[in-house]
Structures are given as C-alpha cells and as structure tokens.
Design a protein that fits this description.
6-stranded parallel beta sheet; globular
C-alpha cells in the first residue's frame, strides 16, 4: 500500500515570518525607544503604546521586507521532507501580492500553489495545523491543532503546544511513526492525559509498585497540589526559568508548571526510571533532550468520569473548572502521540500499573 504523507498547514506571521517583533523594531526606529516582544501579552490591542506597532500593518512596504524568523528556512526545508506542507496566511486583500512574493523570496523552494490566502482557517482540513493564534486553533477542523508558543498565547491551556521548531519536527516524526527505538538504559516515563484522568494517581501508584520508578517533582505556582509537587511563587518560578533550570515549562489554567532537568539527571544517575506527569508539549521537550529514552503513557479515562472528577475538586475556582472541561477535547487529541494507552478506572489502579509494567517489559 502506498504511503500517505501527512498534510500540514503552517501559519506565516510569527511562525515563519517575523511580524510583531519586526513591527516593534520599526516602531523603535521612529521613537528612539526599545520595545520587547515579551511585553505583547495578548492577541491584538493592548491599550498601551505598543499598539502603535499596528500602524505598520497598513503599509505594503511592511510585507515586502518582513524577515524570516531565525531558523525558519531550515525548518521549512526539513518539514517539507517529512510532510506535504501548506502555508495559510491572512493579510488585507490589497497586500496579498506582497505576501506571496515575500514567501517566494524567502523560501524559494516552497511551491507557490501551496500558499493559501484567507482568514477562515476553520475551513481548512489537514492532519496538523501550526499557528500562534489560539483563536485559529480553537475552531480548527484539522486532526491535531498545535500552538506555536509566543508571549501572547502563554496562558493557553490543554491544546498541544511547541516552544520551537525542533519540538514540532519531533511531533511530526511521532505522527509519521518514526520515533527512535527506545534503548534498554533506564527509561523516562512521561504520563499524560486530560484533567481528571487520574494521571497523577497513576504515576504515584506506578512508583509504589516498582521501587525502580522515581516520581519527579513538578514545580508549580498552583497551590494545593499533591503527589510530590513543589509549590513556589510566580517570582521564584520566573527566577528558575531565567537560570534555565527547567527542561520544560507550560501554563495550565492560569498557573505555571515546570520540570527541573537536574531532578531527571539525578534519578538516571541512580539507575532509576524517572516518572513525570506533564502535558504533551513537555514530553516533546524531554524527548529531544533525552533521545531514545522516553516513553509517553496516555491515561485514558471516560470523559464523563473526568468531568465529574474536575467538578468535585473543592480547591478549583469556577473558572478553572470551566477551563479544564473546555480543554478536554484538545487534550484527548494528544492520544495519537502516545507510545502506550492505558484505560484508567475508578479502583485501585493495580491493573493499570500491571498493564504499564507489562508494556515496558519490567
């Protein structure tokens, strides 16, 4: 049977082309001030002086001179070897010609008939869509919507995210079934699943059943966490981030979560099997840092049971409950990236643990 290539739709602005940062550079040239892209904390207008950057979006010259993001050319070339790639981009109609010409200039090997113009990205169908606009992905009809992390989408929850091109290429390899063979040295077990799936209970039960397993602490700003979580202030979390102590970080329902690389290294040095509860985005980062060592285990629990578990958590605020229920559909799509799926029930988790140990051949 002929092999069917994945179809991937990739956004242009702030995924392949510098848009907001380029506009800030132009603004700085007119005002003599320096502006940081990290200060653009939400999509669209902010209600401050950074909104002045948007004036440049009304000029053809902006679209004629937009630079590619660092590494974008190499990324697109690698991606085209792995999948059938389309660039979907939305600009004002009068600037469509400039946008197409700029893409052809920056990426001369990219087929012009694979450039799609228009804002209605909900009409597109593909295996994967990569975009920095969460609003485009929430309405997406693609099998796996993937968010490209930028400062204005850091608070997005549930949806699959990537921090850089390397993580996205790894994700595509997973979808293509090209994950590297796992070595026999101690594995790193990444436990993923929707909120309410009992993934943290499963990780704790796994470590209790086999003393070679070591539950890695999750560093978080969320209060009231259990199962070996380390709660810190937002200020201290940012300090650890700047020190590059985290191997991966993410936002979930308004709180920050991260995994310290040294905790994983210490467990491996003791010939333990690190067990980490994280989202799929964190799994991709860990996989790239520890090639041929990671196994992704998906905790698959009935949707109704997950929602009931979320509702019954007294520590959650009403908006947090709503966010977790809304994100369920996107988290469930991450199942396709797992190495092994275990059905989780309401009991003691003995059968689930036995299932995982059998899969790992331990």
């Amino acid at each position: 049977m002929a092999y069917k290539k994945l179809k991937i739709i990739c956004d242009a602005d702030d995924v392949l082309l510098s848009c907001n940062e380029y506009a800030l550079q132009l603004l700085g040239q007119t005002t003599g001030q320096y502006y940081n892209i990290s200060d653009i904390t939400k999509w669209g207008e902010l209600g401050n002086e950074l909104d002045d950057r948007m004036q440049f979006f009304n000029y053809a010259e902006f679209y004629k001179k937009q630079p590619a993001l660092p590494g974008a050319k190499e990324f697109l070339a690698s991606l085209m070897e792995k999948a059938e790639v389309f660039i979907a981009t939305a600009v004002y109609p009068e600037f469509m010609g400039e946008r197409i010409q700029r893409i052809m200039t920056l990426f001369p090997e990219f087929p012009v008939d694979h450039i799609i113009m228009g804002k209605r990205k909900d009409l597109f169908h593909a295996d994967i869509m990569l975009d920095d606009g969460i609003h485009n992905l929430l309405e997406s009809n693609c099998s796996l919507p993937v968010l490209f992390r930028q400062p204005w989408n850091q608070n997005a929850s549930g949806i699959c995210c990537v921090d850089d091109y390397a993580d996205f290429l790894t994700l595509v390899d997973f979808m293509n079934g090209n994950k590297a063979n796992i070595s026999r040295i101690p594995k790193i077990l990444c436990i993923v699943g929707p909120s309410g799936s009992r993934k943290r209970d499963l990780a704790a039960a796994l470590c209790e059943a086999d003393k070679r397993m070591e539950l890695i602490k999750t560093c978080t700003t969320a209060k009231g966490r259990k199962h070996n979580a380390e709660t810190v202030s937002a200020t201290f979390f940012d300090l650890l981030f700047r020190r590059m102590e985290f191997i991966e970080t993410t936002w979930y329902c308004g709180e920050q979560y991260g995994t310290k690389k040294r905790d994983i290294d210490q467990a491996l040095a003791q010939n333990h099997y690190p067990v980490i509860v994280m989202d799929i985005s964190g799994c991709l980062s860990v996989y790239n840092a520890y090639p041929r060592q990671c196994e992704i285990i998906y905790a698959d629990r009935d949707k109704r049971d997950c929602i009931m578990s979320i509702i019954q958590k007294p520590a959650l605020r009403r908006e947090q409950v709503a966010d977790r229920i809304v994100s369920f559909e996107f988290e469930e799509k991450n199942k396709v990236l797992a190495d092994h799926i275990v059905s989780v029930g309401d009991g003691s988790l003995e059968n689930e643990v036995a299932d995982i140990l059998s899969y790992l051949k331990l």
